[in-house]
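User: I'm curious whether this sequence folds into something compact or stays loose and floppy. Could you predict its structure so I can see for myself?
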Amino acid sequence: MEHLVTYLPLLARGWLVTISLAVLALVLATVLGALGAAGRLSASPIARGAVFLYSTIIRGVPDLVLLLLVYFGGQRLINTILGAIGVEPVDLSPFLAGVLAIGFIYGAYLTETFRGAFLAVPRGQIEAASALGLHRWRLLRHVLMPQIIRAALPGYGNTWQVLVKSTAVVSVIGLQDLVGYANDAGKTTREPFVFFVAVLAGYLFITWASTRILAMLERRAERGYADAR
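Assistant: Here's the prediction. I'll summarize afterward.
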């Protein structure tokens, strides 16, 4: 146990890396999910088909496989393009590769979450707002977004919880996150069990805090919906 106390600052640093990775990946996934939902709901068959392929293929590929493809294949692709234009090759950091891969994966899940949330808004409300002459952006802000957020929050929260746990795979490509530091410390001290119990506690704290925050946001969204009615 004294080894755990010694390595605690290092684990704390890795824990912050894990949270940073998860938050940035969620931001990317949210943007991709919103764009994907817009594509699935658009009148263009090309956009619908492209997004359908994206969400279907990505949700069928294991996270680790896609991470390795992004880290090794993506780095090679970038350097091939840079070499063609006479630019020196660059290294794709494990952190950036993790953000891109995890964000890309969970963007596919959020595409369906946001699409379902939009379809949950009664069509009559959109028609009534249009009949009143609301501009498209005002319609989106005052009529659609409050209801889409309310409908999407449970699925969004579940996606976040799973995304956080998926960050653990990034240690495979050498990222010094919570799992990476714990693995190194466990090998050094020959106490892997102690350090991976600490990892378990670190992830449980993130998910516990996330559950509390998401529950508060859901209650607030429900209260706002009840007040509006």
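Summary: The chain has a mean pLDDT of 86. The domain at 2-228 is CATH 1.10.3720.10 (MetI-like fold).
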